[in-house]
């Protein structure tokens, strides 16, 4: 049987419940502009009824506030994170493709390839009119020098973009580490608060999900939260939760209170992938020990599930249009070469050789070659080896079919494994197949053009004669980095072989493209004549060169004449830039729509909170009125009935 004061307890529970609801409403209103805040709601339930052993059996005991819960839908969080990764990826592509597009621009404000090339051809036309004039030839050489400087400048610009992207990759990795550390700290704090199974760390959970929002823009994320059960009583929940954050397709970044860090390691010169890559490109590794910095396995930057800004940056930095080196190991052998020791003496050293047969068209043309000229890493049957030299060869088999091979020299002393016969018939690859037209792709396109154009131009000059009746010299050369001399491309392809260190057109790149120094000193060395005995005004070789430049049947670049280089490149850039803009716009709009859906559930609506304020105020007033009424009842009962 309840006491005479049972009603007072019931009214008091209503008073405290309304007060809790009012406080929750106040908190919502205070955080209406707080980013990431989730609207909270005081969850109420009828208190356990009291058995009174009367005909009606039980009497209601009032109300309990069982929890103050966030109003949030995890489904929309997952959708937002997935879309955010796509938005981040195309945001990076959009930003850097705009830079590339600006560099290749050719209009009234920027003197680009077409303008420079047309000026060179106009000057060459003057040479045809006055082939015996030093002035016209000097002017032409000057305009040709402008062309080489254009490619030098473009190479420097592309290198700078690659450097910027590479540095931003490191910044993003550092940001991942920072976010992971914060999430792990929040996990610990949340579990400390929620360990009794009653309290909810709502604000801390909001902070954690805001961090996941930021992380999802950098790399794709997956979050798994599971309750922790008592080890000794598997049916009892402890109140704590295990919170896993996985990135890049399932790799664990955060596991409750612990997180795995990442570290960037700059590639050494002998680890360069592409000939025109800048030094010090970063590879990313998991950290085995955060105190000592000891590294564990490499983090796969080329994972199809990478996602986010990191994916966009990697594709821009390493995108090769899917044209990395790949072939099949056909032979394993040995070679002995003379090397210089540290004390300056020479000695014979034996290396392993690996001959790889290739079939891709882009690997059959040395002018398209992107292999490093300082050695690198080659993957032979899923085992990494370091090579310090390579040789390209074209032979003919018994059926008269051309066979293209690359032979790599492997120094086993710096490798962790031996090159055995078991590697025969295994796949050999260098670098990654990154199916995007990033900086390496545009570098390769420029290198291919300057090699193709310079080789054909120089070949025709070599067939002609200069003003002195001597055989023609090259116009185009390549500057060496280590000394003031130049590459003269004297090692031909007559025997079907070109080695990495040969003075071949492989050595010519957009970076070192230049004019033969002797041409500046004496323009009369320009071979304008086809007949060495003819007079100074004979210009047959000039006609041949002009025809070669304008006729794609003579020499071509991607099926077009060499003068259409910019058209070919700009078509790639325009397509990539347009795709990046469109995809970014689409994903950004979808992200805003999802966020609006999310906010419609978890966001604070001031109108709704105003209604709640009135509702809970009325409930509080009524509970107070109930207490006042019961007070009057007790006053009459106690003072006037003499109970």
How would you describe the overall organization of this protein?
The protein has 643 residues and is an alpha+beta fold. 43% of the residues lie in helices and 22% in strands. The chain contains eleven helices and 23 strands. Strands 12-13-16-15-14-17 form a six-stranded antiparallel beta barrel. A four-stranded antiparallel beta sheet has the order 5-6-7-8. Helix 2 runs antiparallel to helix 4, helix 2 packs parallel to helix 5 and helix 4 runs antiparallel to helix 7. It is elongated. The two termini are 18 Å apart.
Any key phrases for this structure?
643 residues, six-stranded antiparallel β-barrel, four-stranded antiparallel sheet, elongated
Relative helix content = 40-55%
Number of strands: 23
Low-confidence segments, given as residue ranges, are none
Q: Indicate the proportion of strand residues.
A: 15-25%
Distance between the amino and carboxyl termini: 18 Å
- Please state the structural category: alpha+beta
Radius of gyration: 37 Å
Mean pLDDT: 90
Largest sheet at a glance? 6 strands, antiparallel, barrel
Inertia-based shape: elongated
**For the largest beta sheet, what order do the strands appear in spatially?**
12-13-16-15-14-17
Count of DSSP helices?
11
How does the SSE layout of this entry go?
Elements: H1 6-30, E1 40-46, E2 50-51, E3 58-59, E4 63-70, H2 74-103, H3 113-129, H4 134-194, H5 202-218, E5 221-229, E6 237-247, E7 251-255, E8 258-259, E9 262-266, E10 282-289, E11 294-298, H6 308-318, E12 325-340, E13 346-358, E14 376-380, E15 384-396, E16 402-410, E17 427-430, H7 439-463, E18 476-479, E19 486-487, E20 497-499, E21 513-515, H8 517-521, H9 540-550, E22 556-557, E23 560-561, H10 565-602, H11 606-640
Antiparallel strand pairs: 1-4, 2-3, 5-6, 6-7, 7-8, 9-10, 10-11, 12-13, 12-17, 13-16, 14-15, 14-17, 15-16, 15-20, 18-19, 18-21, 22-23
Helix pairs in contact: 1-11, 2-4, 2-5, 2-6, 2-10, 3-4, 3-9, 4-5, 4-6, 4-7, 7-9
């Amino acid at each position: 049987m309840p006491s005479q004061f049972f009603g007072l307890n019931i009214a008091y529970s209503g008073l405290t419940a309304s007060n809790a609801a009012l406080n929750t409403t106040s908190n919502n209103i205070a955080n209406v502009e707080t980013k990431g805040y989730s609207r909270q709601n005081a969850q109420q339930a009828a208190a356990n009824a009291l058995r009174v052993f009367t005909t009606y059996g039980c009497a209601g005991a009032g109300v309990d506030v069982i929890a103050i819960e966030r109003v949030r839908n995890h489904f929309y969080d997952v959708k937002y994170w997935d879309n955010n990764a796509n938005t981040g990826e195309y945001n990076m592509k959009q930003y850097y493709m705009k830079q590339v597009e600006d560099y290749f621009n050719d209009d009234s404000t920027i003197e680009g390839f077409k303008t420079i090339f047309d000026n060179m051809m106009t000057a060459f036309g003057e040479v045809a009119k006055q082939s015996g004039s030093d002035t016209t030839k000097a002017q032409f050489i000057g305009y040709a020098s402008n062309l080489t400087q254009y490619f030098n400048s473009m190479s420097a610009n592309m290198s700078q973009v690659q450097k910027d992207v590479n540095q931003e990759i490191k910044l993003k990795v550092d940001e991942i580490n920072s976010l992971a550390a914060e999430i792990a700290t929040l996990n610990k704090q949340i579990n400390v608060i929620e360990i009794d199974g009653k309290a909810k760390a709502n604000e801390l959970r909001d902070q954690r999900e805001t961090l996941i929002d930021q992380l999802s823009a950098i790399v794709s994320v997956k979050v798994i939260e599971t309750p922790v059960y008592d080890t000794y009583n598997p049916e009892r929940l402890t109140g704590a939760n295990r919170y896993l954050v996985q990135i890049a397709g399932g790799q664990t970044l955060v596991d409750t209170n612990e997180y795995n860090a990442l570290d960037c390691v700059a590639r050494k010169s002998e680890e360069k992938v592409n000939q025109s890559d800048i030094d010090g490109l970063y590879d990313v590794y998991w950290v085995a020990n955060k105190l000592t910095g000891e590294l564990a396995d490499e983090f796969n930057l080329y994972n199809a599930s990478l996602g986010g800004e990191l994916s966009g940056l990697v594709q821009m930095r390493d995108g090769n249009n899917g044209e990395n080196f790949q072939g099949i190991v056909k032979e394993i052998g040995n070679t002995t070469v003379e090397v210089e020791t540290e004390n300056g003496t020479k000695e014979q050293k034996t290396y392993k050789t690996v001959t790889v047969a290739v079939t891709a068209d882009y690997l059959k043309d040395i002018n398209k070659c992107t292999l490093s000229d300082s050695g690198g890493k080659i993957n032979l049957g899923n085992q990494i080896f370091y090579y310090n030299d390579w040789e390209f060869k074209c032979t003919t088999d018994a059926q008269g079919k051309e066979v293209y091979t690359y032979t790599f020299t492997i120094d086993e002393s710096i490798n962790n494994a031996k090159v055995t016969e078991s590697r025969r018939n295994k796949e050999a690859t260098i670098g990654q197949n990154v199916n995007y037209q990033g900086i390496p792709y545009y570098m390769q396109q420029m290198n291919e053009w300057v090699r193709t154009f310079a080789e054909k131009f120089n070949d025709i000059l070599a067939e002609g004669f200069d003003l002195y009746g001597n055989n023609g010299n090259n116009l185009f050369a390549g500057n060496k980095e280590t000394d003031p001399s130049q590459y003269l491309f004297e090692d031909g392809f007559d025997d079907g072989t070109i080695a990495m260190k040969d003075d071949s057109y492989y050595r010519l790149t957009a970076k070192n493209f230049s004019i033969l120094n002797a041409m500046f000193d004496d323009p009369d060395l320009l071979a304008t004549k086809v007949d060495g005995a003819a007079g100074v005004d004979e210009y047959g070789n000039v006609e041949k060169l002009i025809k070669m430049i304008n006729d794609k049947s003579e020499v071509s670049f991607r099926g077009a004449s060499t003068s259409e280089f910019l058209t070919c490149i700009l078509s790639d850039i325009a397509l990539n830039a347009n795709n990046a803009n469109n995809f970014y716009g689409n994903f950004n709009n979808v992200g805003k729509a999802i966020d609006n859906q999310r906010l419609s559930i978890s966001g604070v609506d001031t109108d709704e909170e105003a209604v709640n304020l009135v509702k809970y105020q009325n409930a509080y007033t009524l509970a107070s009125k109930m207490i006042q009424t019961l007070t009057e009842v007790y006053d009459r009962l106690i003072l006037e009935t003499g109970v």
